[in-house]
Amino acid sequence: MNLFELIASDYKKHKKYGGNFFTIVFFTQGFWAVYHYRISHFIHQKVKWKIFRFPLLFIMLIGQKGIEILTGISIPGSARIGHSFYVGHFGGIILNANTVIGNNCNISQGVTIGVSGLDQNRGTPILGNEVYIGANSVIAGKIILGNNVLVGACSLVKDSFSDNSVIMGVPGIQVSQNGSKGYI
Predict the structure, then answer these.
(1) What's the CA gap between 171 and 184, in Å, rounded?
(2) Residue 129 near residue 103, CB atoms below 8 Å
(3) Looking at residues 128-140, what average pLDDT do you find?
(4) pTM confidence score
(5) Which residues are listed as membrane-spanning (predicted)?
(6) pLDDT of residue 50
(7) CA-CA distance, 30 to 35, in Å (whole number)?
(8) Domain coordinates of the chain in residue numbers?
(9) What strands lie across the sheet with 144-145, from one edge to the other?
C-alpha cells in the first residue's frame, strides 16, 4: 500500500468507531499520532538521499516531540505497522522504535510495547494481524503474538502466544482460544 492508502485505511478504521471527518481530523489525538507516524515512516523508508533525508527526519523528529506533548503517544517512524491501525484514546502509549505490528490492530491507552530481556533473548515484540491490546498493558521482550490475539487490560506479556489467544494477568497467561473477534 502507498502512503495515501495507508492513511485512508487508518482514517476509515477511526471512522468505524464513530465520528465524522471534522472530529477525527481535528479532535482525535490517536489519529494525529498515526498520521504523523505514517509520514515519518514514509520518509524513514523511502527518502535515501542524505541531502533530503536528514533535514526531513529532523523535522519529523521535532514533529514527533510535538505529537508526544499534545497526545501522550510516542510512535517512532522506524516502527513497522500495518494498515488500519487504531489508537483509541489519549495518552501513555509508548512504542519501541523496533516494534512490528501487523494489519488491523487496536491499541488502548496506557500501552507500552518495548524492549526487554538479556543477551540473545533481548528484543522487541512482533505482533500479528488483528491484535487488540487492552488499556494499561505492557508487551515486552523478544516475543511473537500471533494473529487474532487479545491482550486483556493491565496485563504484562513477556512470552510468545499463538493465534487466537486471549491473554490476561501479570505475567500474562492464556485464558482462552476465543481471540480478538468482536474487539477489532
Answers:
(1) 24
(2) yes
(3) 97
(4) 0.92
(5) 20-39, 51-75
(6) 86
(7) 9
(8) 3-176
(9) 80-81, 100-101, 126-127, 144-145
Are 78 and 64 in contact by the 8 Å Cβ rule? The answer is no
Question: Which stretch of DSSP H or E encloses residue 79?
Answer: none
Contacts of 29 (CB under 8 A, 6+ apart): 70, 71, 72, 73, 87, 90, 91
**183 grid coordinates:** 474487539
- Stretch 123-150: mean pLDDT: 97
Give me 158's grid cell. Answer: 513477556
Residue the block writes with cell 490517536: 30
For residue 156, the surrounding DSSP H or E stretch is strand 156-157
Domain topology for 3-176: UDP N-Acetylglucosamine Acyltransferase; domain 1 (2.160.10)
How would you classify the pairing of strands 150-151 and 166-168? Answer: parallel
pLDDT tens for 78-120 read: 999 999 999 988 889 999 999 999 999 999 999 999 999 888 8
pLDDT in tens, 4-41: 999 999 999 999 988 899 999 999 999 999 999 999 99
Are residues 44 and 58 in contact, defined by beta-carbon separation less than 8 angstroms? no
What angle (nearest 5°) sits at the alpha carbon of residue 55, between those of residues 32 and 24?
10
